[in-house]
Amino acid sequence: MTGQHLNDGRILVVGLGPGPAQWLTPEASDALSIATDLIGYGPYVDRVPEREGLQRHASDNRVEIDRARHALELAKAGRVVAVVSGGDPGVFAMAAAVFEAVEHGDELDRTVRIDVMPGVSAMQAAAARLGAPLGHDFCAISLSDNLKPWEVIERRLTAAAQGDFVIAFYNPASRARPDAIHRAFALLRSLKDGATPVALARAVGRPDERLIVGDLAEVDPSLCDMSTLVLIGSSETRFIERPNGLAPWVYTPRHYGGGR
Amino acid sequence: MTGQHLNDGRILVVGLGPGPAQWLTPEASDALSIATDLIGYGPYVDRVPEREGLQRHASDNRVEIDRARHALELAKAGRVVAVVSGGDPGVFAMAAAVFEAVEHGDELDRTVRIDVMPGVSAMQAAAARLGAPLGHDFCAISLSDNLKPWEVIERRLTAAAQGDFVIAFYNPASRARPDAIHRAFALLRSLKDGATPVALARAVGRPDERLIVGDLAEVDPSLCDMSTLVLIGSSETRFIERPNGLAPWVYTPRHYGGGR
Question: Which of B70, B91, B92 is nearest to B82 (CA)?
Answer without folding.
Answer: B70
